[in-house]
Amino acid sequence: MAALLASKHASDDSEARQALFAALSRLERQALIAGAADPTLRKIAEARFLVGILRDAMRPSRIAPLRSLLRIAAETRRLAEIDLDPV
Predict the structure, then answer these.
(1) Could you tell me which residues come within 8 angstroms of residue 18 by beta carbon, excluding any fewer than 6 positions away?
(2) Pairwise pLDDT comparison (23 vs 60), residue with the higher score
(3) Stretch 40-65: mean pLDDT, rounded?
(4) How many whole angstroms separate alpha carbon 13 and alpha carbon 58?
(5) How far apart are the C-alpha atoms of 9 and 20, rounded to whole Å?
(6) Contact status, residue 34 vs residue 57, Cβ threshold 8 Å
(7) Nearest to 5 by CA among 43, 36, 42
(8) In the 8-state DSSP scheme, what is residue 85?
(9) Which of 57, 49, 67 is closest to 12 using CA atoms?
């Protein structure tokens, strides 16, 4: 388990985080089947839980570039001015 965590500790790669979560899930199942002690199962489950939080927290979110936001704001102002002009 330590080797799995160490190899992906500082990874910014989404696929690596997914792979680590899957590997910990497999390790947890194997330990359960093999009859591992409760403290061992708890440690694996805790690591999987924390990696799951990290995996979800690090999902990239789409953020519009500043240039696009400024362009939209300018267009909105321009359209508002056209609506206010008497015709």
Answers:
(1) 55
(2) 23
(3) 80
(4) 9
(5) 10
(6) no
(7) 43
(8) S
(9) 57
**pLDDT digit string, tens, across residues 5-51:** 555 554 457 788 888 889 999 999 999 999 999 999 999 999 989 88
Burial label for 65, CB within 10 Å (0-12, 13-18, 19+), is exposed
Buried b (16+ CB within 10 A) or exposed e, 1-24: eeeeeeebeeeeeeeebeebbebb
Rounded Cα distance, 87 and 71, in Å: 26
Query: Using CA of residue 40, residue 33, residue 50, residue 16, what is the dihedral sign?
Result: positive
Which token pair is 80?
């508002």
Query: What one-letter code names the amino acid at 74?
Result: A
> Which residues have a Cβ under 8 Å from the Cβ of 28 and sit 6 or more positions away?
41, 44, 45, 48
Q: Which helix (H) or strand (E) holds 78?
A: helix 66-84
The dihedral formed by the CA atoms of 38, 41, 46 and 52, expressed in degrees to the nearest 10:
-150
